[in-house]
Each structure stands twice: as C-alpha cells, then as structure tokens.
Prior knowledge:
The chain is of the alpha+beta class. The protein has helices at 11-16, 89-97, 103-106, 151-158; strands at 3-7, 26-30, 51-53, 55-61, 77-85, 87-88, 112-114, 118-119, 129-134, 137-143, 169-171, 179-180, 186-191, 194-200. The protein is built from four helices and 14 strands.
Amino acid sequence: MKIICIGRNYADHVKELSNQMPSEPVVFLKPDSAILPKGNAFFIPEFSNNLQYEVEIVIRINRLGKHIEEKFAHRYYDQFTLGIDFTARDLQSELKAKGLPWEKAKAFDGSAFLGPWQKVSDYDLQHLNFGLVRNGDTVQAGNSADMLYSIDKLIAEVSKYFSLKIGDLLFTGTPAGVGALQTNDLLSLQLEGRKLAELRVK
Ligand code: ZN
C-alpha cells in the first residue's frame, strides 16, 4: 500500500507559502509506516521546530488501474475521508533550498492522519466543504471546488507514473491556513460543518 500526496493544489495555499503555481500537479509519496495508528495522539517529532498541519481530502482507491482516463477515474474510488498531511516545514524548507527530496519532512512515522471512511455517494465530492479547527478556532476552511486539479484529473495524472492498487490513498492537497502546532493542541477535522475526527497533539 502506498500514499500518494499532491502539493500546491489550492491557489490560496500556493500563495501563502510563496510557491509558484504548478503547471502540472506536484506529487510526492509517503510510505505505509507514515499512517498514524487509530486512537494514537500525534507526537511532534524532535527534529522539527515548525511542525505544521495540512487538512486534506483523502481518496481510497478500490480498483487496480494504470493510465486511467479522467472520464473513467470516478470508477476507481467509492470512499474518502479527511486527513492531515503533517509537515516539518523547517526541514522541508531546508531540503527545498538544497534541491533535495522532501521525504524526511513529509513521510516520517505518524505524518499521515486519517479520519473515518465516508461513502462518496453520500456527498457531493465536487463541492465538499471541509476544514480544520484548532483549539476551538477555525484555521483552515476549504472547498473541493477550488482545487486547481480535480480528484479525477489527479487520478489520471498520477496513474501515468504509478499503478494504482486497491487500498492506495491519495491526499489531494491543502487549502490556505496551514500553521505550526503546539503541544496539547486539539485538532478537529470538519466535514460539511460537522466534526468528523479529533486528534490530540503531544
Ligand atoms: Zn499536503
């Protein structure tokens, strides 16, 4: 099982990090060991002084596929959830400056939090409101309609390079409002105005 992640998929987030608008999706991977086990708190790793949250819509692949056409991409998933792509921003900035891969900043143990799975058919995935509340304050609020590359486009694009297998996950990028975590923060992932999952930071 692999976790495919998309960077820079919301214009407002690209601007807040002073990144360039991508001319194609920015893609990176996390290993399966990145998944935070259910019920665990998130521990800020000792190698970062700027550990940031990124709330994202996560798609679960349910069929084997390769070179998937965008118009058929919807057949390859029927479940989604919200997740957090935890990022050691200080380390990522150092690596980016040196032109090195991001994995140490993005793919460490516990860096992928997942909420409970939802049926795609119960929601309008093209216009999905989601966000993150930190200690009672809304810090991120996004809508999937604002993605630069839609879910189906992303599946078409990534499957040019990687065969998609049952159980693979696709993190689809984060909207604006990312920020640093503090010990004891309580994170609440919001889907259509309701709490989907909660996570304590240690
Ligand atoms: Zn992300």
